[in-house]
Design goal:
The complex is a heterodimer of chains A (486) and B (491). Chain A is mainly alpha-helical and 486 residues long. Chain A has 17 helices and 13 strands. In chain A, the strands form 6 sheets. Chain A has a 3-stranded antiparallel β-sheet. In chain A, strands 4-5 form a two-stranded antiparallel sheet. Chain A is elongated, with a radius of gyration of 25 Å. Chain B is 36% helix and 10% strand. Chain B has a 4-stranded antiparallel β-sheet. A two-stranded antiparallel sheet of chain B has the order 5-6. In chain B, strands 7-8 form a two-stranded antiparallel sheet. Chain B has 491 residues and is α+β, with helices and mostly antiparallel strands. Chain B has 17 helices and 16 strands. Classes of the chains: A mainly alpha (486), B alpha+beta (491).
Chain lengths: 486, 491
């Protein structure tokens, strides 16, 4: 090998220049594409829950400026009359840059991803002319998650999803620097388009015409897990369920045989939170310690967060009369050792769709996937599903519509014989019905805000749980008043 | 090659190089400068200065200038003046239009003054007095939008018809302008107008606004490309009066806009600037700051400088005002303190037309939180959906006719009558003042040779009910009402 000193001077200079340029390019490239600038910090735990990043920006994040302009470039692809992401029924505090459950984080460039709060913050109003009250850890009964998934894919598939069109709209809002402009035009936009289109394959069942819409406030949770975490091929099952409330998780005592999720398919809060968070991440966490630290915080926060108190007047005397009715008719399942355990399907008689979406083998494989990531948790129950969990009723007033599939609009309807329950109604309107205990589900405002729920469609059956439907009207009224106090 | 050939070759190469350089230099000098026409005086700057909006939507000056000649039949009368634009002597552009040299041509667009300046005639023979900061109650903004849209889409808006007019008006055009710049400008303007007015297409779903009014927040939905065809119809009736913009420093923290949806002056200003095309990327902050400094302390002209005031009667009116009006509208025209000033009165209590209220939605407020996110210190954080109308201070109230948010009541005298006794039909757009009833003359169908706009209070959004009952002064005796009116002349 020739000695360095014998190299011609020009070659040395050129080499040095190349090295310097390479180093500069590497630093710039790292800073502008890969470097994680960290999650925004929040002092207030509720804000942390609502807006704190769980790290999902890494693999399922959408570049901020693409996220920003999508509803402006594709307003025609929004599912409902409305403006921007508000059309999906997200909870969005006025004055905030992003809806609740959307976090922004710079990993090279700003990216937007979701957090648990997207599905687990509830809103209600006492009347239409009122700003919604938000309840952290309540079920997001207004969110049309399926429509949001489809919107992203539909945008990516649209010919308008190209650098010229998106950059023109971005340029109305931001003055990107040269590197960002080039990066967006030649890398970020094309790659995002490709990534989103690739989701369509996994989302196939969202496009099936023989399945009804999830509609507002529901997701087909175990099919999401099946097609994303363990990558099973699409089968014919369909079982959307209500977004659950996630407050007061300390009530679950796995050691006493209590199970989580509607069909009792998971062991404990820690497992459920990890599995749900992994669903949001879309891949193995980049920084496992940070991820598990965030999980620990969530578990602690949600275990100790109390259920919300009924905010409207309660007739105390009537509620007191309802207590013995409850004890005689409901307590055996909802305030006893049976609470939190699986009630066999023949006994409960509700729609079986959800049970058929998951099973023992799926649980075994999913547990293996998580274990391979080096994450230890008790995990999913490796046994066949046989029924639905008898729910704890804390904060039941805000958990409408009822039954696991949200097929019964109000508690009053749940106390009517199944054949007389509403056959079709509108979900996703957040004005509260204090008489029936649930949300307003009929009328033009409910129709405008909501999605139609037809109990005759697949997975939507409103039969079963006919307990208490034969009570005298006076007893029902007293029972309803008592349920407000839970 | 022989030496002489070499030198010829060198000379040729040199000449070519020099030529290329010269052309490049010319092109750079011609197309690179970005320079507004600037004004030292703050009021001139307000009337004619640039906010930067030309950079996005600016019409080429000469195209704007010849448009009325290309499509005279699409205007209600002669030139832009027939749409209520105000031309001052010595200015080629109307009040509220600014000019900027950019991309090699002069470009023009609207600024704040177009909606916030008007004229007043204190008697039929008086010269119109220009009042910066008052509502532009003669300007037909919807008419302007529709005219521009119709003309640039007209078969006459072609280079072969338009460029010769420009050449004639400009006294000749260079070859570059004639063959490249303006023909290209025509296409770009057609594209630009289609883009902008596509976003604002809701205007075709509405009644004529008439002069002095705009649908502010349906326009704001245009920023988000709102799918207007799908929105509930009750959202699309949001037309309201242009407001006066004096004394802003005293209005910080009040709930601003008719429905009180934002309590920060600077955020409200940036939001309004969208209407002048001043988007986050291109807004001229320094120019904006000069306007903000001016409107912070600008005051309305005094009624007393133009008409007499009966001091004794006004003093009697002051006592009535203090008990009936002051809690919501402030102590006086200069002192705005009062328990409910700058706060929202619920719609059920105020009872005025709810069109404007319903045009502003929670969803819009939510989306507005994303505006200016590229500049975190300026990001919009204060828009809130409200459920009523805000109680505004009354500075310069004599010039703020017609009254109520939708301009449905022509004079203050009419506003003090029960709704049933207020005029159901009247004419808007006159600048002739009625010093007795306090408002513009509203019972004549023409002024200055222009046909005025017939306002029908039975149309959606135009309701003149509300602000009525003992709490609102409509049940006072006539003599008390006259006294109250006399006092309001001092505001």
């Amino acid at each position: 090998m020739t000695k360095l000193s014998r190299w011609p001077r020009w070659l040395k200079i050129a080499l040095a220049l190349v090295l310097i340029l390479g180093a500069v390019a590497a630093v710039v490239g790292y800073n502008r594409f890969l470097r994680d600038y960290g999650a925004a910090q929040f002092d207030n735990p509720a804000d942390r829950f609502k807006y704190g990043s769980i790290g999902a920006e890494n693999d399922s994040g959408i570049p901020y400026w693409i996220f920003y302009v999508l509803p402006r470039v594709f307003p025609d692809l929004l599912p409902k009359p409305g403006i921007g992401y508000a059309a999906f029924g997200v909870n969005w505090e006025q004055g905030q840059e992003l809806p609740i459950g959307f976090s922004k984080r710079r990993i090279g460039f700003d990216r937007v991803a979701n957090t648990c709060a997207a599905c687990h913050v509830a809103s209600y109003r006492s009347q239409p002319d009122e700003t919604p009250t938000l309840v952290v850890a309540g079920p997001n009964h207004t969110l049309d998650l399926e429509a949001f998934f489809r919107f992203l894919v539909d945008c990516a598939k649209d010919p308008r999803f190209n650098a010229d069109t998106l950059m023109a709209e971005i340029s109305l809002a931001a003055d990107l620097d040269l590197i960002d402009r080039l990066a967006y035009r030649y890398l970020i936009i094309p790659i995002t388009k490709k990534t989103l289109i690739a989701r369509e394959e996994q989302f196939q069942w969202l496009y099936r015409h023989d399945f009804p819409e999830w509609g507002r406030g529901r997701d087909d949770a175990m099919n999401l897990t099946k097609y994303f975490m363990i990558r099973w091929p699409m089968d014919d099952s369909f079982g959307p369920t209500d977004m659950p409330s996630v407050w007061n998780l300390k009530k679950y005592q796995p050691e006493n045989g209590q199970r989580m999720n509607f069909a009792g398919d998971s062991h404990d809060p820690y497992s459920v939170i990890i599995d749900s968070a992994l669903g949001l991440m879309g891949a193995e966490p980049k920084d496992k310690r940070a991820f598990l630290g965030q999980i620990d915080w969530l578990v602690d926060y949600l275990k100790n967060l109390p259920a919300p108190v009924y905010p409207f007047p309660i007739d105390k005397a009537l509620a007191a009369q309802g207590k013995p009715v409850f004890d005689a008719n409901c307590a055996a399942c909802h305030a006893s050792a049976r609470t939190g355990t699986v009630i066999p399907l023949p006994e409960i008689g509700t729609d079986r769709g959800r049970i058929d979406t998951w099973g023992e083998q799926a649980a075994i494989e999913a547990n293996q996937v998580v274990k391979k990531m080096g994450i230890e948790r008790k995990g999913l129950v490796e046994a066949p599903l046989t029924g639905y969990v008898a729910q704890f009723l804390d904060g039941i007033w805000l958990r409408a519509p009822y039954l696991h599939n949200g097929s019964v609009p109000s508690l009053a309807d749940l106390l009517t014989p199944p054949a007389q329950r509403p056959q079709s109604f509108w979900r996703g309107y957040d004005v509260y019905d204090q008489t029936k205990i649930g949300f307003v589900v009929q009328g033009s405002a409910a129709q405008q805000a909501g999605t139609e729920f037809d109990t005759r469609l697949r997975g939507n059956g409103n039969l079963g749980h006919d307990f208490g439907t034969g009570l005298a009207d006076a007893d029902k009224a007293a029972l309803l008043e008592y349920l407000k106090t839970l | 090659m022989s030496p002489s050939r070499w030198s010829v070759c060198r000379v040729l190469v040199s000449i070519t190089l020099v030529l290329v350089l010269l052309i490049g230099l010319y092109a750079a000098l011609r197309f690179l400068p970005d320079r507004p026409v600037a004004y030292a005086d703050p009021v001139e700057h307000f009337k004619y200065g640039s906010l930067g909006g030309e950079r996005n939507m600016g019409f080429p000056y000469w195209l704007f200038a010849v448009l009325p000649e290309v499509c005279p039949d699409l205007l209600p009368g002669q030139g832009y003046a027939s749409l209520g634009f105000i031309f001052e002597p010595g200015h080629d552009l109307p009040v509220g239009m600014s000019k900027r040299r950019q991309l090699g041509i002069d470009r023009v667009f609207l600024n704040c003054a177009v909606c916030h300046t008007s004229t007043v005639r204190t008697s039929p023979d008086a010269e119109p007095m220009l009042v910066p900061g008052m509502p532009a109650n003669r300007l037909d903004l919807m008419g302007f939008q529709k005219f521009v849209q119709a003309c640039v889409n007209d078969r006459r808006f072609t280079p072969s018809q338009v460029v010769p007019r420009i050449a004639e008006k400009a006294g000749g055009l260079s070859l570059l302008d004639k063959l490249v710049v303006y023909p290209l400008g025509i296409h770009l303007m057609r594209d630009g107008v289609a883009g902008l007015l596509g976003r604002l297409r809701f205007i075709h779903m509405q009644d004529d606004w008439g002069p002095g009014r705009v649908d502010t927040f349906n326009s704001a939905k245009g920023i988000f490309q709102a799918p207007f065809e799908q929105l509930p119809p009750e959202e699309l009736v949001g037309v309201s009066d242009f407001p006066a913009i004096w004394s802003q420093a005293k209005k910080q923290d009040m709930q601003l806009h008719w429905d009180g949806n934002n309590d920060r002056v600077e955020e409200r200003n940036l939001s309004a600037a969208f209407g002048a095309g001043a988007l986050p990327r291109i807004i001229d902050y320094a120019a904006m700051a000069r306007i903000e400094a001016w409107i912070a302390t600008a005051t309305p002209p005094a009624f007393a400088d133009h008409y007499p005031i009966d001091k004794a009667l006004a003093a009697r009116g002051q006592a009535i005002y203090a008990t009936t009006c002051a809690a919501c509208h402030g102590q006086s025209g200069k002192h705005f303190s009062g328990e409910y000033v700058g706060k929202v009165t619920p719609i059920a209590a105020i009872g005025t037309d709810r069109g404007r209220l319903d045009s502003y939605t929670l969803q819009l407020a939510q989306n507005q939180g994303m505006l200016y996110s590229a500049h975190p210190e300026r990001r919009f954080r204060h828009f809130r959906k409200t459920y009523g109308y805000a109680n505004a201070p009354l500075d310069g109230i004599w010039l703020r006719a017609p009254y109520l948010h939708n301009g449905s009541v022509p004079t203050l005298w009419d506003l003090l009558q029960p709704a049933a006794a207020r005029p159901a039909h009247f004419y808007r757009g006159n600048d002739l003042y009625d010093p007795q009833h306090l408002g513009f003359v509203a019972d004549q169908s023409t002024a200055n040779g222009h046909t005025l706009f017939a306002f029908d209070t039975s149309r959606p959004g135009n309701g003149n009910a509300g602000h009525e009952g003992a709490a609102y002064g409509t049940s006072l005796s006539d003599s008390d009402k006259w006294a109250l009116l006399e006092y309001l002349k001092t505001f």
